[in-house]
Design brief:
This protein is mainly α and 85 residues long. It has 2 domains: 1-32; 37-82, no CATH class. 54% of the residues lie in helices and 0% in strands. The chain is built from 3 helices and no strands. It has helices spanning 13-28, 42-52, 57-75. Helix 2 (42-52) runs antiparallel to helix 3. The longest helix is centred in the last third of the chain and has 19 residues, at 57-75.
Length: 85
């Protein structure tokens, strides 16, 4: 079983149990972020993001225009996990 981090082992059964409780709490309280979630590319993620917005159609069109002209040409196929500050 995996430990607290990739390639790490738990020190003992109690540490593993506590980690499991923490992860369960994160899922129940909507704080969980999948380890695989960052692998999605910028374009499909941004399309999903756009579909969740409750904005005036003019604002949505403005966001789409910025994405098409500025973001997607440079970052569209880049996985989110690779974008840093």
């Amino acid at each position: 079983a995996s430990g607290p981090g990739p390639g790490e082992r738990f020190r003992d059964e109690n540490e593993a149990y506590e980690d499991g409780l923490d992860r369960e709490s994160d899922v129940r309280n909507l704080r969980h972020v999948s380890r695989h979630s960052g692998r999605i590319a910028t374009t499909p993620w941004s399309l999903t993001w756009l579909s969740t917005l409750d904005l005036d159609p003019t604002s949505l069109n403005h966001y789409r225009k910025i994405l098409r002209a500025q973001i997607w040409p440079h970052w569209g196929s880049t996985p989110l996990v690779e974008i840093t500050t």
